[in-house]
Amino acid sequence: MKKIGLLGGTFDPVHNGHLALAENALEQLSLDCVIMLVSPDPPHKQDIALSNFEKRFEMTKLAAEGLDRIIASDYETHLPVPSYTAQTLENLRDQYPHDRFFFIIGEDSLDNIEKWYEPARVMSLAELVVGIRKESFDNRPVEEQIDYLKSKYGVTIHLLDSDYVDISSTEIRERLLNGLAINDMVPEKVADFIWKEKLYTA
């Protein structure tokens, strides 16, 4: 039985916060690997113009290069659209029935998970791994949300004991639009690719 971490997202672009989540989960939960699932057509972002999938996937592959047990995957491109997390997890569970899946999310997703498509199904198919900001560890609403989800859905929730890297893809795109540096926010190979392809510029 393998312990497989799953980190889903549009990765538009992938950044150091994503990688920190993956690496912390690997170390603290002794996972065999973390798969970064690049979403081609996320249903909750239908009204948002996303960058070309191939370029988002290429950036994610570049970010994972040389990292131990972190893998970029286009798995969801082989599934029906839109790519709901519940359906992705169900397909993975059918393919790998003996493995344990750990779905890695941020604090914001923990608050909004009941708005996802079939949240009960998501929480029955994977354990949740949550990266939260350091100042939130003793925050009563966070504790209450975790207790509530455990009670209602019987889900196992793991908190990552680490400093939360508070970077957003939106912030990176805005900086690029204004000609500002992003070198401390994304891996060097990703920054080079963005500049080479002239992504996120006016």
Structure description:
The chain is an alpha/beta fold. The protein is 41% helix and 16% strand. It has helices at 16-29, 53-64, 85-95, 107-112, 119-125, 140-153, 169-177, 188-197; strands at residues 3-9, 33-38, 70-73, 100-106, 127-131, 157-159. Strands 3-2-1-4-5-6 form a 6-stranded parallel β-sheet, sandwiched between helices. Strand 1 (3-9), helix 1 (16-29) and strand 2 form a beta-alpha-beta unit. Helix 3 packs parallel to helix 5. The longest helix is centred in the first third of the chain and has 14 residues, at 16-29. The radius of gyration is 17 Å and the shape is globular. The termini are far apart. The mean pLDDT is 91.
Write the layout of secondary structure elements.
Blueprint: E1 3-9, H1 16-29, E2 33-38, H2 53-64, E3 70-73, H3 85-95, E4 100-106, H4 107-112, H5 119-125, E5 127-131, H6 140-153, E6 157-159, H7 169-177, H8 188-197
Helix pairs in contact: 2-8, 3-5
